[in-house]
Specification:
The chain is an alpha+beta fold. The protein has one domain (about 5-70). The chain has one helix at about 50-70, and strands at about 5, 20-25, 25-35, 40-45. It has a four-stranded antiparallel β-sheet with strand order 1-2-3-4. The protein is elongated and about 60 Å long.
Length: about 80
């Protein structure tokens, strides 16, 4: 089930992402790794959820963690004394 991801809209603007699927009883642990930053996240979901749903959830968490690492700069308008 694991393999290199495709570069498309499912990657939510990320380049290459590495996925690893591990069955644990009636659940599946999915790890998503961004090779550019080395950031790895994991989720656990039901085994019957389907690979695409689990992949999307892991991608959402990876995007969230990448955004959290680099917050957007404050917009500074006006004059500060």
């Amino acid at each position: 089930m694991a393999g290199p991801s495709r570069r498309n809209s499912q990657n939510m603007g990320l380049g290459n992402v590495i996925f690893e699927f591990s069955a644990v009883g009636n659940a599946v642990k999915v790890c998503a790794v961004d090779p550019d930053t080395g950031l790895e996240v994991s989720i656990v979901g039901p085994a019957n959820a389907g690979e695409e749903a689990l992949r999307r959830t892991a991608m959402s968490k990876l995007r969230y963690m990448l955004d959290k690492r680099q917050p957007t700069p404050l917009k500074r308008g006006g004059v500060f004394a």
